[in-house]
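Hi C.,

You asked whether I'd gotten around to modeling the 303-residue construct. I have! Everything is below, sequence then structure, no commentary in between.
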Amino acid sequence: MTRRLASLILCGGVAVFGSACATKSFVQEQVSTTESKLSERAALQETKLRETADLTGESRQAIDVADQRLNGLDLRVSEVGARASGAETRAAQATGTARDVEARLSQRLASRNRHRLLETKFVYFDSSQTEVRSQDTDELEYVARALTADPNAILELQGFADSRGSDRYNRELARERVEAVTRYLVQRHGIELRQLRAISMGKVALGAGEKASPEVLARARRVEIRLFAPWSSWEDAQSQIPAAPEPTVTVTPAPRGPSTISALPVPAEPVQPPQAARIDAPAAGRLDEFLKTITPKDLGGDQ
């Protein structure tokens, strides 16, 4: 009994020991397998983390590039805004200039039929004569040059006679004198009749207390020539020429007889325009030059 019991106990212990050894090997195998899986997972996670880190670095670089581009766009937007502001200012100036030009054109159109008296000349005649004297041709040459230079200028011719004789005779005589001046301008210088306005004024009555002296009668036998120019032509001429010096008035001594009557009267001094009436050179040219300076770059477009 004792031996059997001891054998059983020994066998049981061996069996238990063998079972225990088998369990430990299994556990070790399981632990090794688990460790291998965990290592693989750790390696995979590490690879994924590295890939994620690489992607994050690339994203940061892309963000930095985008930030730089945005900064560049901000600068360009600022430049475009500044150019747009400058273009708006220029456009406002151009609009103001255009309105000024339009106002001046409207004024000139409204004044197209208005004329300004530039100068008055006199041509004198001998008693009962209608022929233009040689000593008076200089006056006619002067007005002929003025009419040729400005086709829109006109002459107003007023014929006079002295106080002797009947009214009818003097009106006829004054008319013939005006016609003589007209023929001289048309035939010798080709002046168009549309530029001439002629009228016979008849005899010149003596003033109160005035005597019919040879000098008074000689001054009455005349054709008064009044030179007119359109306001627009006069304004253009004033804007293009410098201011002239003060004219020197030469006093001519009175003649002794009718043969030198042409030197008697002093030509009327031309009336100077008011300063406010002077207009600068036409602004249309300035407006065109200003608009040419505006480029697509100033408006924010492509260069």
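If it helps when you're writing up: Strands lie at 115-124, 154-161, 196-203, 222-230.

Thanks,
B.
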